[in-house]
């Protein structure tokens, strides 16, 4: 279980305004130190690639920006160049959660994906002024749930607008001298909403009764590591500074996690995310607390809920004092949803009401409070 929750793997820094020049940008490859170069992968025009897309949220909202429009524009350049971009994902779905990343990585491996293309519109500050840049980053798919490893060679291209970005990219393709070997490239991009249903075992919209007998493993938030030997360059230097900042937030989050879990009615322990689930079983844990973070609509798809396309909002039930309250959250807004998984069988326990919320703290508190109400604990 080498992968952490993907909230800390891909895209964590891609929407943070940065004081930077183009060559100093922290690229949307998550917390990964990459060896940036102008060299394209040698198999780019003879192998399959997948595209992860990230754009800023709509102004004044938490809703996703129009990432598909950027993907459609890019796909015409990719197709003309001979790049077989077989699928496009929003980066928020790629980083939705641990079970999702494991399943998605397995699917990409089965489809014989060789390269990951990160396509992004990045807000940043230059000379104190808000601006943005468009970027293409291409690197190998490492065949693991982390998708990208420290030290990988990565091609990058950055420009002020898409016209210049794709023009420069096309020039680099032509200069590479690579022959086009991909002849069956789709005309329009294929958009995929996350990893699909991620449940391996039985799906239960209840709380597990056996939790009163078995200890629950609760993964801590994980600090990002800085390799002893990492590639140099301004982008990686700035990434190190951003990691140091994000690790301070991790420490605070773990303190908050401890506080919220004190309301959990049964036995549990905080565990490191790096521990394999089989090892957790050997250590006496039968259940593990899991989390997803993406749009409410895609959370429902991943957890097997029935999705009505006509629904614009989802109602979250929250316990407040002795009463229940309802919150209307847009279906396309990002939310957190907790669930418990039985490690050996893969059975999941989603809880009785829909309790996803816009912050992880509220989502976890909702789950625990609804559990106690449903199991008549504390009455």
What does this structure look like?
The chain is of the alpha/beta class and 379 residues long. The chain has 2 domains: 6-176, no CATH class; 203-374, no CATH class. 27% of the residues lie in helices and 26% in strands. The chain has helices spanning 67-81, 91-94, 98-110, 162-176, 234-261, 277-282, 296-302, 360-374, and strands at residues 35-37, 48-54, 84-90, 113-126, 129-140, 153-159, 203-204, 215-219, 268-271, 285-295, 313-320, 323-330, 334-342, 348-349. The strands form 3 sheets. Strands 1-6-5-4-2-3 form a 6-stranded mixed sheet. The chain has a 6-stranded mixed sheet with strand order 7-14-13-10-8-9. Strand 11 and strand 12 form a beta hairpin. Helix 5 (234-261) runs parallel beside helix 8. Mean pLDDT is 88; it is low at 1-20.
Highlighted features:
6-stranded mixed beta sheet, alpha/beta, disordered N terminus, 379 residues, 27% helix
State which percent range the strand residues make up. 25-35%
Radius of gyration: 21 Å
How far the N terminus sits from the C terminus, by CA atoms, comes to 38 Å
What is the approximate shape?
globular
Total count of strands: 14
The strands making up the biggest β-sheet line up spatially as: 1-6-5-4-2-3
Q: What is the total domain count?
A: 2
Structural category: alpha/beta
Short description:
With 379 residues, this protein is of the alpha/beta class. The protein has 8 helices and 14 strands.
Give the arrangement of secondary structure elements.
Blueprint: E1 35-37, E2 48-54, H1 67-81, E3 84-90, H2 91-94, H3 98-110, E4 113-126, E5 129-140, E6 153-159, H4 162-176, E7 203-204, E8 215-219, H5 234-261, E9 268-271, H6 277-282, E10 285-295, H7 296-302, E11 313-320, E12 323-330, E13 334-342, E14 348-349, H8 360-374
Parallel strand pairs: 1-6, 2-3, 2-4, 7-14, 8-9, 8-10
Antiparallel strand pairs: 4-5, 5-6, 10-13, 11-12, 13-14
Helix pairs in contact: 1-4, 5-8
